[in-house]
């Protein structure tokens, strides 16, 4: 008889049984062991979630924005109060280092809710005179929104989607990745504790089939999706059947461009952050590292030195560990296959390139931080999102050339430029086809800054005041001030 904890779906402020007892396993990537079980959202749960969300919307959308804001800020305080415990839960689900989760995952989730809670009362319409008559506009919520999350930043993604949705008076049904279901459940509990009415944030659990149900459901007005490009296409096609609005946060193959005059240590820091943070499982990663030829020898020497000396791979719960386990055995195999393809296609492997079995976590799904050089634009390594700790270094001669090569991809999520030349920095970044850009920085994503992709990396934005528009719709109200003229 299993002694594992079994979580249920969170609907209307409480956990509810799915009626069939059907469950799925959640595995700790650092140990390979099953951590807990979760009940799948059966049709009964799905219907309950819709009924609950309708009731939640009736209550929540009638509150003033100031009232909603106050409650959301209580949730922010609770998230911060429980930071370390929530971060530990994220580590057990994702395999990422605790030192990251403690500093980033919960903090940035809470920041987003705080940001939108602050903005909510400022949402306003306008009024315009038309002769003696006038019209005014109201920004109204959309209704029930669906959130579908990826597994790399589970709680943060749930916060980033819930924050603008709830601040604008919508309700959300959220489906986390079945690999990382815990963060969204904890968020739902915290929302309830903060006083958010039942039905405003429901969590349904399961795999892509539950996601597909959400995207096809006619009671749902919008879907905000984070995941792979291929899944995003399916979600958008399904959303079209009921003419849902969509926000798509998809994958990337982002360029990191380093000019000869760049500060070498900062450029190496960016390349390592942009490839090895969260063991390479970050959508904005700068996996195509373009280095200008004269700087290349110095850059590559320091890059390999620092990678071999400073990465501490092991049990992610150890605060010293700065490099964790990949999400699953399957994903580990996929990343290792890309490494083999890289070797076969003629790239030079400088370091890494294999699975690791650290003493403190011998059964985890680790892949060593891997650096390939002599990469060309045509190689699979330079074209496909690997979503693991695999960096491709390419060299370039001049600015025009590197801009063209950097843009030679159907993806356009992020990009960065390192140079001391201020005009070149802006000139280059303005020509890059990407939605999230950095100059002499990598990875920073404060709640105030809108983030999202160009081209096939996405549609719409998360964070930033822009996003409020994506969670409201305009109602225009014309007011007649005189007798109505009519030919009838
Ligand atoms: P994924 O395989 O596309 O899955 C994303 C979510 O979609 C999961 O919850 C998944 O459920 C669900 N899903 C699968 N099939 C579905 C369907 N037919 N209809 C509706 N939902 C469906 O992506 P992932 O492997 O979890 O995450 C990695 C990807 O996310 C990478 O490409 C990364 O770049 C991207 N990402 C982008 C951003 C951004 O902000 N742009 C941020 C983080 C990650 P199950 O997993 O439970 O099957």
TrEMBL record:
Span of domain Aldehyde dehydrogenase: 19-477
Listed Gene3D superfamilies: Aldehyde Dehydrogenase, Chain A, domain 1 (3.40.605.10), Aldehyde Dehydrogenase, Chain A, domain 2 (3.40.309.10)
One Pfam family it belongs to: Aldedh
UniProt enzyme class: oxidoreductase
Keyword Disulfide bond: no
Protein name stated in the entry: Betaine-aldehyde dehydrogenase
Annotated active site: 249
InterPro entries noted in UniProt: Ald_DH/histidinol_DH (IPR016161), Ald_DH_C (IPR016163), Ald_DH_CS_CYS (IPR016160), Ald_DH_CS_GLU (IPR029510), Ald_DH_N (IPR016162), Aldehyde_DH_dom (IPR015590), BADH (IPR011264)
Superkingdom field: Bacteria
Single Gene Ontology MF annotation: betaine-aldehyde dehydrogenase (NAD+) activity
Annotated organism of origin: Psychromonas arctica
Family classification: Belongs to the aldehyde dehydrogenase family.
Keywords: Metal-binding, NAD, Oxidation, Oxidoreductase, Potassium
Gene: betB
Keyword check for Oxidoreductase: yes
EC number(s) given by UniProt: 1.2.1.8
